[in-house]
Amino acid sequence: xxxxxxxxxxxxxxxxxxxxxxxxxxxxxxxxxxxxxxxxxxxxxxxxxxxxxxxxxxxxxxxxxxxxxxxxxxxxxxxxxxxxxxxxxxxxxxxxxxxxxxxxxxxxxxxxxxxxxxxxxxxxxxxxxxxxxxxxxxxxxxxxxxxxxxxxxxxxxxxxxxxxxxxxxxxxxxxxxxxxxxxxxxxxxxxxxxxxxxxxxxxxxxxxxxxxxxxxxxxxxxxxxxxxxxxxxxxxxxxxxxxxxxxxxxxxxxxxxxxxxxxxxxxxxxxxxxxxxxxxxxxxxxxxxxxxxxxxxxxxxxxxxxxxxxxxxxxxxxxxxxxxxxxxxxxxxxxxxxxxxxxxxxxxxxxx
Length: 352
Prior knowledge:
five-stranded mixed beta sheet, Arc Repressor Mutant, subunit A, alpha+beta, 15 helices, three-stranded antiparallel beta sheet
């Protein structure tokens, strides 16, 4: 089984079928968006004919929302899914953060006051940048230094009070979730576990239950319960000592194309075990400080290097750092991938 090539297809990197970035997000369940512009490219890469502007339009149109649903990191979530996902996944994130909150003296009283002040400041469709939100709290005697403000923002988002709104120039804004997305469904817990498992294994498979637990932040017990409820829709195969699960319709990608993936892409970050796509000898070159996955170059499903971008008046320059020299065909494919990225940004692209 060529796990990497099947994932390329199921993640719609090799075979995009969606014309709407919101449909991509819904297919995945959630798409990593810690790096906002990298997250936009992650959706654009998987959406036919997408531009950065068209992806942001899905956010402005309230079909995609950016918030902290799981693992304490930012993700894009479909508007219809945000509430049930927060209710299912966010409580465990809050429990994991409780020790850090105690260190920062963020007790229930401080969180409740912060929530009340945020609601008062944002009610009526108002949107505030982060520094403006911090000023509201600081003026009321709630200090935001030493990452206290960021922890408060995350906690209020996980509680379903606030979410990111549209950008204000180059700055992100926060708004009330109830006003930004006034209608979104809730699911009973067992149904929600099955739904998030279905989304994960259809879009990310082949993958193990431990991969799913890592991605979702669920306990392995809950991850197994979710998988058990949707096993009839999936196929499984034993690969070495692992059992991997995937869609019954999964077929390997036949493409030999090269892809430029952003940092924290679902293809690299969404698995506990990354050896299927990355030679362990090169792992340190892909992980920045703290294990953050850099933007990567992928050829035939394998990570073969990293890349950086520089945007100037003449367009975007892509600078790859490769683990080994590419052959001539892959070198041409690198130019093709860079031009695709340039079209997404709306500027010329060159490789250096």
